Fold this sequence. Notes:
The structure holds two protein chains of two kinds.
Chain A: H1 2-6, H2 8-31, H3 38-41, H4 60-84, H5 91-113
Chain B: H1 2-6, H2 8-35, H3 46-65, E1 72-74, E2 79-81, H4 83-102, H5 104-109, H6 116-133, H7 137-155, H8 162-193, H9 198-206, H10 213-233, H11 242-249, H12 252-260, H13 262-276, H14 282-304, H15 310-331, H16 334-360, H17 379-382, H18 384-398, H19 404-418, H20 422-447, H21 449-452, H22 466-484, H23 487-498
Amino acid sequence: xxxxxxxxxxxxxxxxxxxxxxxxxxxxxxxxxxxxxxxxxxxxxxxxxxxxxxxxxxxxxxxxxxxxxxxxxxxxxxxxxxxxxxxxxxxxxxxxxxxxxxxxxxxxxxxxxxxxxxxx
Amino acid sequence: xxxxxxxxxxxxxxxxxxxxxxxxxxxxxxxxxxxxxxxxxxxxxxxxxxxxxxxxxxxxxxxxxxxxxxxxxxxxxxxxxxxxxxxxxxxxxxxxxxxxxxxxxxxxxxxxxxxxxxxxxxxxxxxxxxxxxxxxxxxxxxxxxxxxxxxxxxxxxxxxxxxxxxxxxxxxxxxxxxxxxxxxxxxxxxxxxxxxxxxxxxxxxxxxxxxxxxxxxxxxxxxxxxxxxxxxxxxxxxxxxxxxxxxxxxxxxxxxxxxxxxxxxxxxxxxxxxxxxxxxxxxxxxxxxxxxxxxxxxxxxxxxxxxxxxxxxxxxxxxxxxxxxxxxxxxxxxxxxxxxxxxxxxxxxxxxxxxxxxxxxxxxxxxxxxxxxxxxxxxxxxxxxxxxxxxxxxxxxxxxxxxxxxxxxxxxxxxxxxxxxxxxxxxxxxxxxxxxxxxxxxxxxxxxxxxxxxxxxxxxxxxxxxxxxxxxxxxxxxxxxxxxxxxxxxxxxxxxxxxxx
Lengths: 120, 501
């Protein structure tokens, strides 16, 4: 039974999250003044209309930039916890990250030289 | 500096992998600068890179071979170096070198000019080396991801071919699904035991762990998920649907690599996991393995009967061979494991010979489409020696006596019966009779089809390359020699099996 007991906080969190989310969504739906027009209804996040003919052409460069962004974003995500915990780490911890950065730089040089970063 | 002294031996053991990884990085820089240099006129460096890769792999092989320490767990037990891992690495490296030499001409002919191809191949080999040594569920997952990410791109290497990109995408989507299953299984195991390390897990399971029924059933589910991911990766039957399509679509150089290299490493690491660590849960595991093995044998035999394309036929035949291998896996004894490694080694030699045969029947008319059985019909007039080699290789795959394949198959059946899997082994023997039908049909196509229907004989075949002819000759020599005197390979595989138990 202890397995289930351990999950009770997560269950409470789930209920609170669902409740809070539905309150916020419902309140903004009910209380706000709604004047929709074409521009307001259109999707503005990612540049493409998600509900149209899937045979349209799209530029692959958007995706290339997005993928490269994710890689270097993840690098920053690794760097922060490393920087915070550097005082407790041994030399191994330091040099591991240096190795990681070096290998990432090789990847960056590759991406740069083959021209994936150039838009035109 | 204390820390460096502590890790000195670890680094010594890891030196082949470190060498390979560093070489890949340097090779990336070299290839990028040369291939994008305006002053050199953007040269094509496929052949050059291929030769350098072979050189790097030879040095890596020598480093693995000259390893002094026979058993050690390194880096907080995440990796293990023992006789099994060393020998499997040796086999993997040798067969990769052969593969690289074989398809050099084919890369040029198919105009796969992007220099990333060789780099990705080296990356996949590095991933396989990590996979063989991994002794922790996390390092296992990371190594599997490393090799399969490289293989997904290799499947899609011919960018202007729809089939190739389709194969790459299919392989990627299904492969990431199976990786998700693997991760799910690992997380269940971790949630129940609190460790991912093989050593800790084996200690934990050797104590009386089965007292809590809730826990036991949860761990069994986790093991089933891990087993499903493994069976997917080796294309065992109900999870095999990706393999014929990927073999068919990807360029032949990638197909050879998929067909020959990764299976041995995957089998090694999962034997280590299932027999060395999860031995308390063998009942359910053996049940699953035998079921999957019987399904693979049936699908491999019956689905291949209708295939007209050579690559698909070989893909289905590899599924049925995976069935025999799983049967040896399920035998769960030292002899059974030895039979598995023996079968796998001979299968690798045979399929390298066979794929070289497929590479060598390239003619001007079938270069850019996949080869069908009809393409075989004029080989016997164009190149009788090649036809004879093909005949013997197919007979060895079918397990016909004066060739090594017979011995491998017999050993698997004998040791499976030794572990009292009578029904499964008789079933496999019966289906292997069916599967020998389509091997003989291929041989009929090689030898008699040209006589029956006069197909167009004005086909221009490319000459068999030097590397291909060497491979065909030595492969054939091994197939005959290992039937006459298998002691060498038996001792080699015995050592591998003994280091598991």
